[in-house]
Fold this sequence. Notes:
alpha/beta, TIM Barrel, 11 strands, 5-stranded parallel sheet
Amino acid sequence: MFNNFNFECFRKWCVNKAINLVVVVAFLIFVIVIIFAASIGSNSPTIIVASNSVLSTKKIGWGIKRGDNHDQPDLGAENKKIIDEFDGYAMGNKDKPYIYLTFDVGYDNGYTSQILDVLKANKVSALFFVTGQFVKTSPDLLQRMIDEGHTVGNHTLKHKVMPEISEADIKEDVMSLHQEIFEKFNYEMKYIRPPKGEYSEKTIAYTNSLGYKTVMWSFAYDDWDNDKQGREEYGKKKILDNLHNGEIMLLHATSKDNANILDEVIKETVKQGYEFKSIDDFER
């Protein structure tokens, strides 16, 4: 009787049972995820599941708490967690006296050329985040940035706040500018700064998937306001009082004050023992 037992049929029966069990378990997991998503209140940030990670669409505004006596500032637990998780840059090594100089330049306000002159004279390389408007109106300045060894970063085509738009719109805003600069200048950007410093876990993860590394900052001041110019001593004091190791310095190239104080700021920064480094040489 034992000799008549069909081992092949028994093996197939076991395999079929195992497959059915896997299907049932997968279905139950799917149902649990749906129920969990449905239970989240309408006022809560949307949660998505992608690439085995749970990502939030909650909009976050980048902000820091300045340190004293040239100590590194507090980036905030949430900011630091997200920027580290997605391999972005916000502040470098606390033991290295390095400064990474960056400019946001949404448009040319007449001072970009002067800023480039100062950087060239002081042999300092900077990272310029440009928008579509700047590329359209000032291609000669962008070409000069590239020719003089600066890094050009993506500040998006239309400067839309990323957590407020769809992935399709983010891709259009980022990659259309990427393609335009590549085609016109044979230059491929790899760093991005989200417009207004507003982001979410989802938007950083998505721009990562487009081939970009997010660069935030560990110092900025209200230099972007064109109604608050003519405060050169104020600007100089803000910048120099807050120098710190690993600093990613954000200045706006639209500021007349910045253009006028930049040479003195660079010289005094070096005098205090800091070294300006390219973002390509960033050290954590």
